[in-house]
Here is the input.
Amino acid sequence: MNVSHHRPRTIKIALAAAVAAVLLAGTACSSKADGDDADGGADGVKAGPGVSAGTIKLGALTDLTGPYATLGKSIVQAQQMWADEVNAQGGICDRKVQIVVKDHGYDVQKAVTAYADISSDVVALPQVIGSPVVSALLDDIQRDTMLTFPQAWAASLLGKDAVQVLGTTYDLDMIAAVDFLTRTKKVAEGDTIGHVYFEGDYGANALEGSQWAAKKAGLKVAGQKIKATDTDLSAQVSALRKAGVKAVLISAGPAQTASLAGVAASRGLTVPIVSSAPGYAPQLMKTPAAKALEAMVHVVSAAPAVSSDLPGVKKMVASYGKKYPGSPVDSGVLSGYNAAQLLGADLKKACESGSLTREAVVKAHRSQTNADTGLGTPQDFSDVSRPASRSTYVLKPDAKAVGGIVNVEEAHEAPGIEEYLSSRG
Amino acid sequence: MTGLIDSLFNGLALGSVYALIALGFVTIFKASGVLSFAHGSLLLLGGYLIAVLHDELGFAGALALAVLVTAAVAGLVDRVVLQRIGADPHAAHVATIATIGIDIVLVTDLARRIGGDLLTLGDPWGDAVTDLGPATVADSRIAAITVSALAIGGAFALFRFTPWGLSLRAAAEDAEAAALMGVRLTRVRMLAWCLAGALAALAAVFLAAFPAPGLERTTGQIALKAFPAAILGGMASPVGALVGSMVIGLTEAFTAGYQSDLHVLGEGFGDVAPYAVMVLVLLVRPAGLFAAKGAARV
Here is the structure.
C-alpha cells in the first residue's frame, strides 16, 4: 500500500531533480563559454568576463522606476555620456566601452536576478543604487571580484576588496557637520543639537559620526529616528524644540529636509540645519519650503556643488546640458560621471599592466593612491578599510544656481577625523 | 507646556486627516463588506490630479474636479469590477483581495507619472502660521481640522437624513431584507464608494500641504495609518472611525513629541504606537470601541 502511495512522489522528485540538473548544466555551460572566449586578446592583453577583442562591457544596477528614479536617470545618463566621450576618443585599451543598464526599481529580488543576469558578461559595476541592494549582493560581488561603485556611503560597506565607496562615508560627513557648527560659532560647549535620521544603515552610520563629534565638542545629541514615509516632521520639531536644540543635523531624504526646515521656520525654531548629502535635491527649490531651506540649511558633501567653479565640473555640466537638454543637473550627474571616470582610469591602468581580468581591474583600482578626476578632491583607494576621501565641502541651497546649490566652503578635512578613524580601527 | 499644546494640535490635525480616510474605509465596509486596500491609490490619484490641474484651474477648481474624478473612479471600480464578483460574504473577501490588485495597478501608473518629483498642490495656505497662545500652528493644520470637521459632519448628515443614508444603513443591517423592501443595493453601494473616493481626494490635500513638502509617489501609503483607526473604532461604525482616528493621531503626535522620554521603548516607537494601541484596544474590546451592538457571531 505504502509503495503505491510513495511512487508518484518519487517520480515527481526524480523529475524535479532532472529538471534542476538540466538547468544547472545549462547555466554552467553558459558561464564556462563566457570564460573561455575571454582568454588572451589579439593585442596580448589578457581578457576576462565582459571583455572581448572589441568591447569592454560594464554593468549598472539602477532604479529607473522606483523611489530613486530621478537619481537613477541622472547617473545612467551621465555615465552614458562618459562612455560616448571615451568611445569618441578611441575607447579604452582599443576597445569600445559599453554599459549594460538593468532597472531593479529598488526591489532587492529583482536586483539579485539582474545581477545574476549580467554578472558573467561585465567586468565591473560603476553604478549600484540602494543600500539594501548592495547588502544583498555583497557576497556575490566579492566572490566574482567584481569592482563595484555603490551609490551608498555607509561605513559598513568598507573593508571589501571589490567594493569601493567613493568619497566620504556618512559618519565623516556628520563629524564635518558638527565641526562646521562649532567652528562658525553656531553652537557652543554644553549646547544640545538635534539629529533627525533615517532608520537603517544610512541613519545609523550618520548618528555614529554625530555622537562621536558631539562628545568631543562637549555637545549633547537629541536623536529623532524617522522612516522614509514620514514627510511631516511637525512632531519631531516639537520634540527638538522641547529639547532646546541650538542646531539640527538631518540624515534623511530631500522631502524630510524640506519638512524639517519649513516646520522649524514656521514655529520660530530658526536654528541652523546641516544635512547629509542625500538629504537635498534641486526639486526642493520649487516647494513652499524653499525660502526656509535657503535661510537655514547647509549640506555637507564629499562632492562639490554642480554650480562649482572647478573647471572639470563646469565642462561636465556644459556637455551634460548639451546632450540632455531639459534634464536637471543634480548631484547624481556629478557622482555618476565621477564614478565612471574613476573606473575608466582603473581600466586604463589594468590595460597597461597587460590584463583586463576582473582581478586585474580590482588590483589596478587598489593601486590608485591619488585618483583625481578634476570633479572634486583626489581619492586614495589603497586602504580597503578606510574611506577613499576625508575632505568635505559645505554647500548651501540656492534657487538661482545650477543644480539649486552653491559651494560655501571648499573641501577640507575636519579636525578629529583621523582620530575617529584610528579609534574605530 | 508649549510642547504639550504643539503635540495636541499636531495630533488633532493628523487625526482629522486620518478621519477623512478612515470614514472612507468604514463607509465602503458598511455598504459592501469590502476592506478597500485601494484607498491609498485613490488618495494619490486625487492629489496627483490637483497637482497637475491647479496651474490651469486654480486651486479651488482643481480640487473640485479632482474630488469629482476620484469619486467617479472609486464608483467605477466598485460598479465595473467589484460588484461583478457578487454580493455574498465570500465574494466580499474576494473583492477585498481584488482591491489589492487595483491598488497595485493604480499606484504603479501614478508612480510612473510622478517619478521622483515632489508636487505642490498650490493650496492657499502656503507656509503661513498663526499664533495660538504659546503655540504656533500652521494655517494648513487649522484648515485641515476645519475642513475635516465640515466634511465629516456632511457625511454624517448624509447617513442620517437622506434616503441614501437610510438605504445604506438598512442594507448594512440586512442586505436581503433591504433589497426586498426596494433598496437598490448596487446603487447604494456605488454611491458609498464615490463618497469614500471624494473624502480620500480631500485628505490628499492635507497630507501634501505645508508641514509636508508636497505630494510624493509614496504619499498614498500614509492612508494605511488610517487602517488601525478604522479597526479600533469598529470597522462598521462612522463614529468609531472618528474617535479611532483622533486616538491614532494623538498617539502618533505624542509618542513622536515625547520620544526622548519614551527611550525605554526604543527609538522610533512613534511608528509602532498606532498599532500597539490598536492591539491593546482589541484585547479589551475584540470588535472595536464602537462595534455594532448585538453583532451576533454564530
